[in-house]
Amino acid sequence: MHELKTNPQVERTRRLMLDGARTLLAEEGPTAVTHLRVAETAGVARATVYRHWPSRADILLDLLRRGVDLRLAVPSADLSIANRVTQLLRTFAAALNGDSGQILAAMIGLAEWDEDVFAALERMTAYGPKLLRDLLATGADDGLLTSGIDIDLLADRLIGPLYLRRLLYHDDITDAYVDSLVASELTPP
Question: Looking at residue 56, what DSSP letter applies?
Fold first, then answer.
């Protein structure tokens, strides 16, 4: 299979723009991350920023993805459902405990009033929580969870406390906390 090579100049320009956007986000918050401000900070034309990210939500989503640095993968089917869920939630917790927790907190607060921020968050959550819901649905289909369990509600009960603990209480999420949370929510049928 033949790989497409990316122009080194394009990659350098993209890195400059992302670094500029990250600086704006860290120093002034999500409202400062606009096409114009990113272009000014990176020293490029505004059209260049638009070519890489057609909307402001795209810039914010890219920053969020890079800041969160989730390395999500479907845990091995050889593990118990509780261990698979624990492994996935520990990945979420690690991301929230890092710098991305602060970025996420700022963006969640602003999403109520800013459609671009809301769109970026909505697109981001379509991936991680979907992976958890899919994992739980597979467990339910395989008879590993209580029959008739509401998968969406269970996923919310597993993810919600992580966000609450980190974003509202500003506490780190420990492995022991994740283990306890999973044990309290996942009971065999």
Answer: H
pLDDT digits (tens, 9 = 90+) for 105-134: 777 877 888 888 788 778 777 677 888 999
CA distance 116 to 156: 24
Q: Are 85 and 158 in contact (CB under 8 A)?
A: yes
Percent residues over pLDDT 90 in the chain: 44
In the chain the domains, ranked by start, together with CATH numbers, are: 8-54 (1.10.10.60), 68-185 (1.10.357.10)
Cβ-proximal residues to 149 (8 Å cutoff; 6+ apart), any chain: 136, 140
Contact (CB, 8 A) for 41 and 20: yes
pTM value is: 0.71
Class of residue 104 by CB neighbours under 10 A (exposed 0-12, middle 13-18, buried 19+) = buried
- Mapping DSSP onto H, E and C, the string for 93-136 reads HHHHHCHHHHHHHHHHHHHCCCHHHHHHHHHHHCCHHHHHHHHH
Which among 137, 125, 117 has a CA at the least distance from the CA of 163? 125
